[in-house]
Amino acid sequence: YDEYISYGDRSAIIDPAHAERMVRDQRFAYAHLLLIDGRIVGTWRRTVKKEAVVIQRMPIRPFSAAEEEAVAAAA
Asked: What is the pTM of this model?
């Protein structure tokens, strides 16, 4: 987790187009990171309800169909 959040140079783990957003967006401060191929593509959180556990994902970019399937399978 520290390697994904702590370092100033995040070019190896997040698309540079989204790196600045990661720094200023508070949801990354203590987030559950959503990773695809070792790169940050969003965050997620869970809500426990009486009859189900709901996983809400908050992507920073659109996912391909294969990525959607992989995220759903992991959830």
From this structure: 0.71
